[in-house]
Design goal:
Helix content: over 70%
Mean pLDDT: 96
Bound molecules: fe (ii) ion
Radius of gyration: 23 Å
Strand order of the largest sheet: 1-2
Shape: globular
Strand content: under 5%
Largest sheet: 2 strands, antiparallel
Number of strands: 2
Number of helices: 24
Order of helices and strands: EEHHHHHHHHHHHHHHHHHHHHHHHH
Length: 474
């Protein structure tokens, strides 16, 4: 500690925070809690903390995290400066080992090294398993590294330190729920998610985790009811609510409620046409799926494609790049697609960052496949996508989000008249998720392609029965 008035205050979970005054520590704790709840006033709490003590190292570090969570190149420099400031403040005023660990993690993230960032925070969590910020950020990083098992293990390692008596325990149950869901343990995920909702009905991440379980298990009607039953509690949530509405649209889409989805898209999912990365990928992913269903989406693509053109050189997350590619392909903007591909190729060749590695490993081929699909080269799309489809998890996001690319592959196989391949991919889908009408309709097309009319009809009627809600269908 320095020779000034700085001392260690503790947060609601007993962790030391170096600051000049207790108010700053309290505001920062509110900011972390608000972040876990996707609350709209998260930034206000952080501002209050930093105005109470602008020289609080952990406050500056959290500011850096928040900037990077926007996943925008334009904010990366600002985050890097914040990391430097935090470092200088820690030297000037002193900081705990935990706080220094966070600064190290933030600095690694600013260098684009997501793997080291996650590892640094995991290391920190061994000594401080109640560090909610570390837990939430590693959850996010493992998610965008496409590593469900790592998400699950991360929460499992700290479970010993959490129970009902610890502040914000509910959020940890929500994290646990989603980590279990992305690891395929749907039963345990639902139990954890429902427990989190019991503790806090406004825990939108927990609601979202259970919605994912229902998505993976094709419980469409239940999914709609689940979200609708909880949405009143999300009035103070930020734009993450749009993503939950997006999930509701996926359920509606499977039930064939196209008008409902379009209205929901306009009024909820894409109501403010923001440039938030998740908001834009929600929009792209939903319009693409509507297109697959043969729904005319009117002029809705154009604002997304315009924005995609503005983010051609982004590459903060390959996941976002691939969604921009979909928007450009859907609108036939071939020059922009060429430019995005060339830019991504340069980025992959630079190497040195986690996402450059992801681009080289699968992102480039994914974007080339989308490009091929967009210009009607379906055989080319299959050729690009088949070899890397098993590695697509590397681009991050959830199974439900990445499914848009697996669906594109199946559609490409059908249009390229690759009968046996379409049959195999359709079989994979209908086996893993037998309650999906869309998959059965695709399976029917695959059967028709290989000339098995009877099987095609059976698959088609199975799809219709599922959509109508027949119990016999499953
Ligand atoms: Fe989701």
């Amino acid at each position: 500690m320095g020779m000034n008035a700085r001392q260690e205050f503790t947060d609601a979970r007993g962790l030391a925070v170096t600051t000049e005054n207790a108010a700053a520590a309290a505001h920062l704790d509110c900011a972390i809690r608000a972040y876990c709840g996707f609350a709209r006033d998260t930034g206000d709490h952080l501002k209050a903390a930093l105005s109470a003590d602008p020289e609080m190292p952990f406050g500056q570090t959290v500011k850096g995290y928040f900037l990077l969570l926007f996943a925008k190149r334009g904010l990366a420099d600002k985050a890097a400066k914040t990391a430097e400031t935090a470092c200088e403040l820690a030297d000037k005023h002193g900081a705990t080992r935990r706080e220094r660990g966070h600064i190290e993690a933030l600095s690694a993230w600013c260098r684009g090294d997501l793997v080291t960032t996650a590892a640094t925070l995991e290391d920190l969590l061994i000594a401080h398993p109640r560090d909610l910020m570390a837990l939430k950020i590693t959850h996010y990083l493992h998610f965008y590294l496409g590593n469900g098992p790592a998400m699950r293990a991360s929460i499992a390692r700290v479970r010993h330190a959490w129970d009902e008596t610890v502040a914000d325990y509910g959020f940890v149950k929500g994290l646990e729920a989603f980590s279990l869901e992305e690891s395929g343990d749907y039963g345990a995920a639902e139990v954890a998610g429902r427990r989190a909702i019991e503790i806090n009905p406004s825990d939108i991440w927990a609601c979202h985790a259970v919605a994912h379980v229902m998505e993976m298990q094709a419980r469409h009607r239940e999914g709609i009811d689940w979200i609708t039953g909880l949405e009143a509690g999300f009035s103070d949530c930020n734009n993450f609510a749009y993503h939950v509405w997006w999930h509701r649209c996926l359920f509606m889409l499977e039930l064939g409620d196209h008008d409902g989805v379009l209205a929901h898209y306009d009024e909820k999912v894409r109501s403010d046409q923001s440039e938030d990365m998740l908001d834009m990928s929600n929009g792209v992913s939903l319009l693409w799926r509507l297109g697959e269903e043969g729904v005319d989406v009117g002029s809705r693509w154009s604002e997304l494609a315009d924005k995609a053109e503005a983010y051609i050189d982004e590459h903060v997350l390959v996941f976002n790049d691939a969604h921009f590619m979909l928007a450009l392909a859907a609108t036939g903007r071939s020059g922009s697609q060429d430019r995005l591909l060339a830019s991504l190729e340069r980025f992959a060749a630079e190497a040195g960052t986690t996402e450059a590695g992801v681009a080289a490993d699968s992102g480039l081929d994914l974007c080339r496949a989308i490009h091929a699909f967009g210009r009607g080269d379906f055989a080319g799309a299959v050729e690009r996508l088949m070899p890397c489809r098993e590695r697509l998890n590397g681009i991050g996001g959830s199974h439900a989000q990445r499914d848009v690319f697996q669906r594109l592959l199946l559609e490409a196989a059908l249009r390229a008249e690759r009968g046996p391949l379409a049959q195999a991919l359709g079989s994979e889908r209908t086996t893993l998720k037998p309650g999906s009408p869309w998959s059965w309709r695709q399976m029917a097309r695959a059967y028709a392609l290989i000339g098995d009319t009877a099987a095609a009809e059976a698959a088609q009627s199975r799809a219709a029965a599922l959509r109508a809600g027949s119990r016999h269908a499953t």
